[in-house]
């Protein structure tokens, strides 16, 4: 969406704060021995306390309040009472929600407990790439150039990007134009970012795969060549200069 007045700005700030704090609390709460269903129910309770509604549940009928993906699951993981978190697991939590007609989205990958599987390097790369990417976005900047930056930064660090997942516009619904804000340079994409528009920028940084494929459950995505993936995401407001990071309080860069 494009922000045209103070009321819209306030609405986006309110929902962005809601999803950011929900994500942060879920990250802090996650621990070995907990099921992903238990973690999801905790997140759902926080959203309800804010008066917000789960965006994936509202939009797609997703079987959970948040998406929780573990280890080889790349994204859209279904919370389950059969999936118990273990020390060293790579976990991704994606929280998106609606409040008073406004929608926002954010996500974070992190390690449960100690990094016994040496995956912190992947997580850190995703964080750094998101930060560098967002700092280079402004009104008028070509979308494809930002994708090129993301892929270049990933390759520098020995990683790949997932080419069939990307960021998106957000605001009055979960996915809006501009859609397909990809992690690589699409030379056929001549679109530019627009000042005052709201977008969700997200990384999809992978060890082995370049395509995400859906499992038989109809939701969970894994890599076409296996491996692991880290994702970090902020909802931002584009300006003439540095973007306003509306979900900054999720603390994913801390």
Report on the structure:
The protein has helices at residues 6-29, 36-50, 55-60, 120-135, 143-156, and strands spanning 53-54, 67-70, 73-75, 90-99, 102-111, 160-161, 166-169, 176-182, 198-202, 205-206, 212-214, 221-223, 229-230, 233-237, 244-245. The protein has 254 residues and is α+β, with helices and mostly antiparallel strands. The strands form 4 sheets. A 5-stranded antiparallel sheet has the order 8-7-9-14-15, with helices on one face. Strands 1, 2, 4 and 5 form a 4-stranded antiparallel sheet that branches. A 3-stranded antiparallel sheet has the order 3-12-11, with no helix packed on it.
Low-confidence runs: none
Instruction: Give the number of DSSP strands.
Output: 15
Instruction: Summarize model confidence as the mean pLDDT.
Output: 97
State the helical fraction: 25-40%
Q: Give the overall shape.
A: globular
Helix-strand topology string: HHEHEEEEHHEEEEEEEEEE
- Please give the order of strands in the largest beta sheet: 8-7-9-14-15
| Cα-based radius of gyration, to the nearest Å | 17 Å
